[in-house]
Amino acid sequence: MRPIILTVKMELQRMIKDKYFLFYSLLMPFILYCLFTYMSRGSSVNGIDFDYYFLISMTCYSLVMTSVQTFGIQIMHDRKQTWMNYLFTQPITRPQYFISRIMTQLILNIVIVSLFFFIINLWKQFDRPFSEWMMTSLWLLSGSTLFLTIGILVAQSRKIETASATSNIVVLGLAIVGGLWMPLNSFPVWLQTIGEWLPSYLYAQGAWSIAANQGIDFSNIIIIVCYFLVCFICAMLLQYRKRS
Q1: pTM for the whole thing?
Q2: pLDDT (tens digit, 9 = 90+) per residue, 36-47?
Q3: Comparing C-alpha atoms, which of 187, 206, 173 is closest to residue 56?
Q4: Considering its fold, how many domains does the chain have in total?
C-alpha cells in the first residue's frame, strides 16, 4: 500500500503543475459556463433553471475531458519515457502503478467537482439541499470511471499524435452531440436519437434527473455499465496484444 500512496502523492504534484490540465480541465469549462449562462439568462431546460442545468453540463464536460484526454495522453506519454523502465525496479509493480494513476485521477475529479460546485454556487446562490449536492457529486464521480476506461483505450495508440487527435475528436463528439454544450432538444431529431445513446448524455442525464427530483433511470445505469465493460475489455485485450 505504501508504494501506491507515494506514487499518488508524486502524480498529484505533477498534475497540479501541469498548465494544460489547469487550463483545459478547470478554466475553459468555467469560461464556457460564464459565456453560455450570460447568453441564456432567465431560461430553463426541462423544468431546471438553466444556470444550474449548465453547471451540471460543464462539470460533466470537465470530467469527461480530464478522464479521456488528460489521463489517456499522460499514460501514453509516460509509457514512452525511458525512466519508466527503471521505475519498476523499485518496490512497485505495474498493477500498483496503474491503480495509483486511477486513484490520482479520481482525487482530481473530486477536486474538480468540489471547486465547480462551491465556486459557482457561491456566485449564483442556488437554493438546493445539501443532500442533492452530495447525490449529484457521488453520481458524477462514480460515472467518471467509465471515461477513465475510454482514456486507457485511447492510450493504446502507437503514436502520441494519433492519441491526441483521437482524444480531441472523442471529447468534442461526446460533449457536443451528447448535449453537454447545449441542450439536446435544440438538435435535429435524428441527431437527438444518436445523442441519447451516447455515454456522455446518459452520464449527465443521471445528474439532471437528480436536479429535477426524479430518480435515475435504471436503464441509464445498465447502459453505462455495459459501456464500461466493453471499453475495459477492449483496453485489456489491446494491452495484452501489445505485450505479446
Answers
A1: 0.90
A2: 888 777 678 888
A3: 206
A4: 1
